Amino acid sequence: MDRERVVAIAGNPNVGKSTVFNNLTNLHQHTGNWPGKTVVNATGYCSTEKFSYKMVDIPGTYSLMAHSAEEEVARDFICFGDADAVVVVCDATCLERNLNLVLQTMEITGSVIVCVNLLDEAAKKGIHIDLDALSKELGVPVIGMVARDGKGIDELLDTLDDMMDSERITVKAVAVCYADDGRRMYDSDGRYRICYPDAVEQAIAILEPAAEAVLEETALQYEKCRIGQRKLKGPGPRWLALKLLDYDSALDEGVRTYLQKDICQELPVREALPRAEKLLAQAGLDQKRLEEEIVSSVMATAEEISRAAVANEKERSDLKDRKIDHILTGKWLGYPIMAVLLMVILWLTITGANYPSQMLSKALFWVQDRLTEFFRYMGAPVWLHGMLVLGVYRVLAWVVSVMLPPMAIFFPLFTLLEDVGYLPRIAYNLDKPFKKCCACGKQALTLCMGFGCNAAGVTGCRIIDSPRERLIAILTNSLVPCNGRFPTLIAIITMFFIGTSKGAGTSLLSALLLTLFIMLGVGMTFFVSWLLSRTILKGVPSSFTLELPPYRRPQFGKVIVRSIFDRTLFVLGRAVMVAAPAGLFIWAAANIFVGDQSLLNYCAAMLDPFARLFGLDGVILIAFILGLPANEIVVPIIIMAYMAQGSILEMDSLTEMRNLFVSHGWTWVTAVCTMLFSLMHWPCSTTLLTIKKETGSWKWTFTALVIPTLAGMVLCFIVAQTAYLFM
Q1: Which range has the worst mean pLDDT, 25-29, 371-375, 593-597, 641-645?
Q2: Of 103, 116, 15, 22, which is closest to residue 65 (Cα–Cα)?
Q3: Residue 372 vs residue 635, higher pLDDT
Q4: Cα 553 to Cα 120, 550, 559, distances in angstroms
Q5: Cβ(14)–Cβ(27) under 8 Å?
Q6: Exposed e or buried b for every residue in 587-601, given b needs 16+ CB within 10 A?
Q7: Would 589 disulfide with which of 287, 543, 600, 604, CB 3.0-4.6 Å?
Q8: What's the rounded mean pLDDT across residues 133-149?
Q9: What is the pLDDT of residue 645?
Q10: What letters, b where the CB count within 10 A reaches 16 and e where it falls short, cover 221-233?
Q11: How far apart (Å, rounded) are the C-alpha atoms in residues 616 and 607?
């Protein structure tokens, strides 16, 4: 078998690019329905009888003109990643728009294979694509695919083998000509393009030989110092000439790094560039108009090719989707539908998680009893049993039993909305309010991710291009409750506002109140984003391209597998990592005595006067402080402190828990303030470490800790002091 070939897999968001990648490599990358899902290059491997391939799933992007982080990463890998071929995946239902990326990629490299995916969806909409005609128009191989069913994968591998076989390559790829009108003709090297006199084309004609001379000289130098290794690959002279005219500082640095020289300072380019720029200036083409000319020429070429290869039986094949969008993204119904869907998801989560959580809790505490018997049998010291079993294991048992069942329900439901195509509609609906806050509409997506885990929401902020807006999204992500805070909110709602009786009506009312609290968190996210954008993070909101993909039938099996393994177990594993040492610390605090009371109760007594200003007490506040590693252990710590026990306890029912809380002075004011503080307080340790990693700054990490804490304290203070006036 020959050396390993590198193949880049490119494409717009939502075209099935990562599905193609997964089918080729048997990996399971997360496929999200929003721009910038892949913010780093995922790598996998596959092989045929002829070649071994390294597949690189580059970020989903609409263009290579690098107006965003995704576009820059994609462009740089295609230009400088030494890929032997680029597979561009397109959506058959909107081929013309996808051809924009195809044409730009073909300008960089001729080793391109076009995969037209979602042919089944196109057929349903009455769209028929002549793949042979499309291949002839583009001058590169075209493969028809239904990637979700694995159709077309074998043909793609065969085509890759043919392309890697140098004796069988016969590329006549089309190139864009940058002008208003023209005709096709073949040039001397067998390629054909649309050519005619024009200022931009004339400028390219001046620069292209100079760029080619520099590339040839660099290639010779590369081969001399790297004998036996691969030859220099990278952008062709025509594309490089165009980019010298349409200057991009980030690209200029990439070219300099790749070629190990400043191409603008090379003699051929230094002589040709001023002449080309003068020609453009005489034609009245400044930087902005030049970019507009480039974009319009690419789109005009894509439109011409699409007309030759695409036939549409229906005048508006997307009419059904647009009718649904008119309701789901409408001015009057869009927001209420979002709230109702959220409430339904929460209701299903609350109702469905009750029994599994109880069963899991009983099983884990049964294991605890067996561990206790084992320690007694081994004659282990009491303190060792307390540390490991009553401390570490019992906290882990609480976290797993409380966290796993809701996540196992919430994440698949959330992923289902994503798979159907509703998540981008949520971003569309929330784009306008975020713009009014001078933030980015993509923050709506990171906000939604925060419902599952704030740390995941913070990581998802990478999809926001503007550093200012990305920082706003990171700092405000913890204002929406993560999955770990739901048990506390649900328990308090049930005990003090709904009642402990069981039934569909009770769980539905719990979901309604929980939804109202979550909407309060979303409202605070808007307010704090607005405040930050007018104070320490001033700026103008940026625009972004958001595609509303077609509605698709969800793949229930893949949704369940992906949400369980990629999300639920991942988040649970992180929680367990921090909960274990937290259990040890909490046990020590509850068993080390200062005078006649434990260190835990001693600290709680010290904090009590301060906590009562906010409608809390010292025990509640110390529980939140010790709950920094994992929000799930807040309620168990409160129970432990109230019962003066040295280990976390399990209450048999919410009625017993309510009686315990009331006997220690809880009122409806305490319940409301505890819920508000649970909704808005410092992020967990995992989220804080993620913020440090994403921002690279302890200053912003501390700011992310202070903002939700101050918001929670202010709200609790207002509610508590107002209530005390009327009590």
Answers
A1: 25-29
A2: 103
A3: 372
A4: 12, 10, 11
A5: no
A6: bbbbbeeeeeebebb
A7: 600
A8: 90
A9: 61
A10: ebeeeeeeeeebb
A11: 10
Question: Rounded to an integer, what distance in angstroms lies between the CA atom of residue 350 and that of residue 509?
Answer: 11
Percent of the chain with pLDDT over 90: 19
More confident residue, 228 or 95: 95
Q: What is the pLDDT of residue 300?
A: 86
Q: Is the pLDDT of residue 196 over 50?
A: no
Residue 82 gets the label, from left (phi > 0), alpha (psi -120 to 50) or beta, of left
CB 650 within 8 A of CB 366: no
Instruction: Work out the burial of residue 142: count CB atoms within 10 Å of its CB; fewer than 13 is exposed, 13-18 middle, 19 or more buried.
Output: buried
H/E segment holding residue 243 = helix 237-245
Residue 424 token pair: 């981008």
Cβ burial of 11 (10 Å; 0-12, 13-18, 19+) is buried
Measure CA 262 to chain center.
36
Write down the H helix ranges in 310-333.
319-328
Q: Which amino acid is at 670?
A: T
Specify the higher pLDDT residue, 407 or 230.
407
Query: CA 218, CA 220: separation in Å to the nearest integer?
Result: 5
Question: For 680-714, how does the pLDDT look when each residue is reduced to its tens digit (9 = 90+)?
Answer: 999 988 899 889 988 989 999 999 999 999 999 99
pLDDT value of position 698: 93
Contact 414, 568 (CB under 8 A): no
Which range has the worst mean pLDDT, 153-167, 190-204, 277-291, 453-467? Answer: 190-204
Distance of CA 330 to the CA centre of its chain: 25
Using one digit for the tens of pLDDT, what is the confidence trace for 223-282? 555 544 445 566 778 888 888 888 776 666 777 777 777 777 788 888 888 888 888 888
What whole-number distance in Å separates Cα of residue 10 and Cα of residue 15? 10
pLDDT reported for residue 48? 87
d(CA 45, CA 435): 42
- Can you give the pLDDT at residue 222? 57
Whether the CB-CB separation of 111 and 138 falls below 8 Å is answered with no
Which residue in 436, 421, 434 sits closest to 464, CA to CA? 434
Buried b (16+ CB within 10 A) or exposed e, 455-487: bbbbbbbbbbbbebbbbbbbbbbbbbbbbbbbb
Task: Give the C-alpha separation, 683 to 692, whole Å.
Answer: 12
Distance between CA atoms of 187 and 238, rounded to whole angstroms?
A: 13
Tokens 């597998």 correspond to 561
Least confident of 82-91, 282-291, 335-344: 282-291
**Distance in angstroms (rounded) separating the CA atoms of residues 497 and 274:** 75
Q: What amino acid is encoded at 476 in this protein?
A: T
**Contact (Cβ atoms closer than 8 angstroms) between residue 539 and residue 464:** no
Res 395 pLDDT > 90: no
Burial status of residue 319 (CB atoms within 10 A of its CB: 0-12, 13-18, 19 or more): exposed
Q: SS3 sequence, 452-493?
A: HCHHHHHHHHHHCCCHHHHHHHHHHHHHCCCCCCHHHHHHHH
Rounded CA separation 145/20 (Å): 9
Q: Is the pLDDT of residue 86 over 80?
A: yes
Amino acid at 710: L
The beta-carbon contacts of 495-503 under 8 Å, at least 24 apart in sequence, are 495/654, 495/657, 495/658, 495/661, 495/671, 496/658, 496/666, 496/668, 496/671, 497/668, 497/671, 500/653, 500/654, 500/655, 500/658
What's the sign of the alpha-carbon dihedral 306, 310, 311, 317? negative
φ/ψ (deg, to 5) at 569: -70, -30
DSSP conformation class of 654: H
